[in-house]
Amino acid sequence: MIPAAPLPLQPAPAPAPAHDPAAATPRWQRLWREGVRDPRELLRLLGLDEAAAGISDAAAAQFPLRVPRGFIARMRPGDLHDPLLRQVLPVPDEARIVPGFSLDAVGDAAAKKADGVIQKYRGRALLVATGSCAINCRYCFRRHFPYADETAARDGWAGAVAAIAADTGIDEVILSGGDPLSLATPKLAELTARLAAIPHIRRLRIHSRLPVVLPERVDDAFVEWLSALPWPVAFVIHANHAKEFDASVDASVGRLRRAGAQLLNQAVLLRGVNDSVEALADLCERGYAAGVMPYYLHQLDRVQGVAHFEVEDERARELHRQLAGRLSGYLVPKLVREVAGDPGKRPL
Ligand SMILES: *Cc1c(COP(=O)(O)O)cnc(C)c1O
Ligand code: SF4
């Protein structure tokens, strides 16, 4: 999600506690666990030849493959260049050492307010709710870990909530990670119940890729939780390509909208995935058709192993100019990069 501080990889969310017979394991947690972890199985499912695909076991060992089956179903069988496949397939290019691409993410220790709470920008505090994700995106800063090995959930949210309560300058809390929706709904409810006691919080923001990669996550219990929140909610989904949307995503996003959330999309500009004006325009239009407003188009964070995804700044600007010449103004996302020490995302 928001590259604030890398976290160690964590296992799938724990099933509902055994001592509570009423709490059956939600379906989305089962689907999460059934996600594909073996690159060869992924290739088999897509009818792709292993030798031609050029997967890297070393890359998969460094940052495991993980992808929900519903997301695989949106990939085109037999197409090695499928833009969804490129986002998850471990490849030899990841071993290239390229100057300027470091092990450090953009997060800096100075921005840490408490375990799992990071503040870089005025007014908004980012809460690292969990380190887990349902999908492992190859371009993500999260492939390198750890130095923040504690999330805000660890002590039942006490430290994180106290740090936010103590700073009246914070009026927006951002749930991030990892993916905050990898937490079970009762755990999220526990957190927001605590935050609700802080009078200076005016807005809640959620950054999650789950409505797109595991739309089943937006189930009845989740919608009930979301609808009952005491603040206006901005919900930032992370879709990089129009093909990530299908009827199941339209449904999950529609439920979020009906629960009262303001929906925004943040994408990363990725070579071989969405680096054409057609792909970007399709993404913005497809998202809007589902009820999602374009927000940011990010230049990727320069962490080791992702250089093959990078689009040069000049080309990024040109793509953005062409996009603006083609779409309604409100469909054009802001092209930005995160620069350590800046007071906000830096426009390119
Ligand atoms: C990106 C980011 C935000 C959110 O920035 P916006 O421009 O408001 O979307 C907040 N906190 C941190 C630490 C971030 O990295
Ligand atoms: S969903 Fe993908 S991009 Fe977002 S934090 Fe997880 S691995 Fe990174």
Could you name the key traits of this structure?
348 residues; alpha/beta; TIM Barrel; 2 domains; ten-stranded mixed beta sheet; 13 helices; globular; binds pyridoxal-5'-phosphate; binds iron/sulfur cluster
Task: Offer a concise description of the structure.
With 348 residues, the chain is α/β, with parallel strands linked by helices.
Write up this protein.
By secondary structure, the protein is α/β, with parallel strands linked by helices. It has two domains: 26-95, no CATH class; 109-347, TIM Barrel (Alpha-Beta Barrel). It contains 13 helices and ten strands. It has helices at residues 27-33, 39-45, 50-53, 57-62, 69-72, 83-86, 158-165, 185-195, 210-213, 220-227, 247-258, 277-290, 313-324; strands at residues 112-114, 117-121, 124-128, 172-176, 203-208, 233-237, 262-268, 293-298, 334-337, 346-347. A ten-stranded mixed beta sheet has the order 1-2-3-4-5-6-7-8-9-10. α12 (277-290) crosses α13. Iron/sulfur cluster binds at residues 1, 133, 135-137, 140, 142, 178-179, 209, 238.
